[in-house]
Amino acid sequence: MSTPAHAEDDGRRERVFAPLPPARGRAFARTWWGRTWLNALEDTALDNAQLKLGRTFARRGAVGAVSVRPGRITAVVLGADRTPCRADVLLRELTAEEWDRLLDVVVAQSGHIAALLDRDMPPRLVEDAADAGLDLLPGVGDLDPECACGGWDHCAHTAALSYQTARLLDEDPLALLLMRGRGERELLETLQERSAAQAAGDGGGPPGAAAYEEDGPEGVDAAEAFALGVLLPPLPEPPAPVSGAAKTAALDGAAEVPGLDVGALSFLAADAAATARRMLAAAVSPQASGPPAQRPLTAREDAVRLAAAHPGPDAAARLAAFCGCSAAELDIAVHAWGFGGAEALAVLADRSVPPAELRQARDELDLAWGGEESRPVLQGEGLHWTARGGEAQLRYGPDGRWWPFRRRGQAWWPVGGPERDPAAALATALADDGESPAGG
């Protein structure tokens, strides 16, 4: 990863990242926040052909130095004929009031500060920010393109810039906070001031106190304490002793009912309680009027979801029998569920392939490598393509994304989530050489 060509200044708070080498044989984003950035691009752009061309530009190293400033990223991109073109992508800056709320969220958990110092973006930080009504990461429609070529939507130049930016964010998520309006030095100085104020009792208690009271005694990790240094406030007072442990359900006398599986019933009761809690949290959240709910799960999909919670061998055997599959097949389905839920289960099954869809999939494969000789040899039928001696496989999903699979014994196991870029999915499949989970 290249380092910034120069540090951020006191005025525009700009960082310039030197051009990155070509991205052949690797995914553009390996972190969850980098993939979220790409999802914002790919779910917004109206012209998939421009996305694919932009991906090719970025993969071959046609994106120059990337300037990151509040509200904007800029780079010069070499087009198909090597003509340079300035491309910009805009992202809304947070207001002063929004930044005030975000800083409160960060200092409320000492782990958030430690993660940022370590160039990490913990999911809990993004979730806590969302609870405060703030979206740190971009969503659909948040990346606004501007290009000298005159394209009104994401053209190949702004798409290439966005793909390259995902690689930068992988290494330094603080660049995202700079886009939102605060440079690294300014951010850390403000966090230090707030942490010191809270430690002195001016901020309503030390960082982490609220979570300490709500979630139980978390403590402070030694590695975090070392990373935080002077930012770390005194530890909170120990909580009062817990009088007794709560139970999720009481099944008095149930064991005496013939044919009743008490363990399975307890598991279902706990699952229902957890589902109700998630539904309640969603109903009262600021995003309650957001995107519509997904379609209801089928009986088989819900059985796999339950099996993914590891209910125990007896309940797992009953779920496998209900699905009409072996325990090993259920293990594969559970593994797939972890990567993509019901969508991943659909990719496990063979399906009929319309000719138009098959042609589209083959065109995407060809375009991903830009006709280069380095493209791996892929063989197969339908929407399953196998490479490298039959060890790695690509599968084309119903939503047009690519899923990486790896052979384990006589079965194919999913080894990653879906990718718009087939080259990225194949890189994941080829790089995975681990063992399947227990039971595989």
Would you mind describing this structure in some detail?
The protein is α+β, with helices and mostly antiparallel strands. Helix content is 44%, strand content 11%. The protein has helices at 32-42, 48-59, 96-107, 110-117, 123-131, 156-171, 174-179, 184-199, 209-215, 222-228, 262-284, 299-307, 313-323, 327-348, 355-368, 422-431, and strands at residues 4-6, 15-17, 66-69, 72-78, 84-90, 144-147, 378-379, 384-387, 392-396, 402-408, 411-414. The strands form two sheets. A six-stranded antiparallel beta sheet has the order 1-2-3-4-5-6. Strand 4 (72-78) and strand 5 form a beta hairpin. The longest helix has 23 residues, at 262-284.
Main features:
single chain, 440 residues, alpha+beta, 6-stranded antiparallel sheet, 5-stranded antiparallel sheet, 16 helices, 11% strand, disordered N terminus, disordered C terminus
Gist of the model:
Helix content is 44%, strand content 11%. The protein is α+β, with helices and mostly antiparallel strands. The strands form two sheets. The protein has a six-stranded antiparallel β-sheet.
Q: Mean pLDDT across all residues, rounded? A: 77
* Structural class computed from helices and strand pairing: alpha+beta
How would you describe the shape? flat
How do the helices and strands follow one another from N- to C-terminus?
Answer: EEHHEEEHHHEHHHHHHHHHHEEEEEH
Please outline the major beta sheet: 6 strands, antiparallel
Strand line-up across the major sheet: 1-2-3-4-5-6
DSSP helical segment count: 16
Number of strands: 11
Give the distance, in angstroms, between the N- and C-terminal Cα atoms.
36 Å
DSSP strand content:
5-15%
Point out poorly predicted stretches. Answer: 1-12, 202-217, 241-246, 286-292, 435-440
State Rg.
25 Å
* Oligomeric state of this protein: single chain
Helix proportion of residues, in percent?
A: 40-55%
